[in-house]
């Protein structure tokens, strides 16, 4: 979720020259380590801006009782203070480099394989369906890293839901160790099937939304590399909204699978969780938490893409 696209459309003066321009830009590919560093910057920006919203969303989705984002926020602040909004932020911050390393490598590799693009920002002339497919491939590739990190984060965020008044974990490391002690190393991948069902469509919409929003703001004959910071923020925000609307139903299932207690799990499988969630409230149950999700999506993803673009430009 930490990638962006800038391209050099100024070299494209005709339909015939479009492919030549892409090849010329491939002579200066962006080194993988630069994509990793820039992606890390974007990821850190996203966590700092979006984590409080994520905490409210996780608690809202974890329980079956009817509630609202404002009610959850009020209770959280009353019980834990403002610090509670940032609970579980350690794993996302520490894991950003690993997640982005896989995400950017996979996205770049997919773009190179399908469109001959070695710089993931040079996508102005790339067919939109290839941009989207590359995003989906990147989403699938990063699941192995993302799933255990999100499990720890969600356990930290929702521990007071199942044990009011006391903390189950001293921190992210203690949380991971207790998960392993309870169910072995494979327990770290609780909710993996739901994550696999969530992330490819999520990143399909994410990268596609960003590219479409950039192109919509780029003048005819111009280049997306000339877009202002404000325009890049807008494109990133649109990408975030598109992705969240796509992934929210499966994200609810994943959150419930990952937040349930080890001792007395509420769901036997992803399918069991899906059926029980539907039985609770129909399709509306899969959009629980949509308020904080959308409130977070625009600003968090706006700074993600802007952070990535600015960092990558600084490294060139």
Topology readout:
Layout: H1 15-26, H2 32-62, H3 69-80, H4 90-115, H5 128-141, H6 143-162, H7 172-183, H8 192-217, H9 229-259, H10 270-281, H11 290-315
Helix pairs in contact: 2-3, 2-4, 2-6, 2-11, 4-5, 4-6, 5-8, 6-8, 8-9, 9-10, 9-11
GO molecular function: O-acyl-L-carnitine transmembrane transporter activity
Main location: mitochondrion
Keywords: Membrane, Mitochondrion, Repeat, Transmembrane, Transmembrane helix, Transport
List keywords for this structure.
316 residues, mainly alpha, Mitochondrial carrier fold, 70% helix
Q: How many DSSP H or I helices?
A: 11
Mean pLDDT: 84
- Report the strand count: 0
Which class of secondary structure composition applies to the elements?
mainly alpha
Largest sheet: none
Query: CATH superfamily assignment?
Result: Mitochondrial carrier domain
Number of domains: 1
Unreliable sequence segments: 3-27
One letter per element, helices H and strands E, the order comes to HHHHHHHHHHH
Protein name: Mitochondrial carrier protein
Membrane topology: Multi-pass membrane protein
Family: Belongs to the mitochondrial carrier (TC 2.A.29) family.
Subcellular location: Mitochondrion membrane
């Amino acid at each position: 979720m930490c990638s962006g696209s800038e391209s050099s459309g100024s070299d494209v003066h005709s339909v015939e020259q479009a492919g030549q321009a892409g090849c010329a830009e491939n002579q200066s590919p962006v080194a993988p380590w630069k994509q990793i560093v820039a992606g890390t910057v974007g990821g850190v920006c996203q966590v700092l801006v979006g984590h409080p919203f994520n905490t409210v969303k996780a608690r809202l989705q974890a329980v079956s009782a009817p509630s609202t984002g404002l009610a959850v926020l009020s209770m959280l602040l009353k019980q834990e203070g403002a610090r509670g909004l940032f609970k579980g932020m350690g794993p996302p911050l520490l894991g950003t480099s690993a997640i982005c390393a896989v995400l950017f490598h996979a996205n770049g590799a997919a773009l190179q394989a399908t469109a001959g693009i070695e710089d993931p920002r040079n996508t102005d002339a790339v067919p939109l369906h290839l941009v989207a497919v590359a995003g989906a491939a990147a989403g699938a590739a990063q699941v192995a890293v993302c799933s255990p990190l999100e499990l720890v984060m969600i356990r930290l965020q929702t521990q007071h839901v199942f044990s009011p008044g006391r903390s189950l974990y001293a921190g992210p490391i203690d949380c991971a160790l207790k998960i392993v002690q309870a169910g072995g190393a494979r327990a770290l991948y609780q909710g993996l099937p739901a994550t696999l069902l969530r992330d490819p469509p999520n990143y399909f919409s994410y990268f596609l939304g960003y590219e479409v929003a950039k192109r919509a703001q780029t003048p005819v004959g111009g280049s997306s590399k000339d877009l202002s910071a404000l325009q890049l923020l807008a494109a990133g925000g649109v990408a975030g909204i598109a992705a969240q609307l796509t992934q929210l139903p499966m994200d609810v299932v994943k959150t419930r699978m990952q937040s349930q207690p080890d001792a007395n799990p509420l769901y036997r499988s992803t399918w069991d969780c899906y059926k029980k969630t539907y039985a609770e409230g129909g399709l509306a149950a899969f959009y629980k938490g949509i308020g904080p999700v959308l409130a977070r999506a625009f600003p968090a993803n706006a700074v993600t893409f802007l952070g990535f673009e600015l960092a990558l430009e600084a490294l060139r």
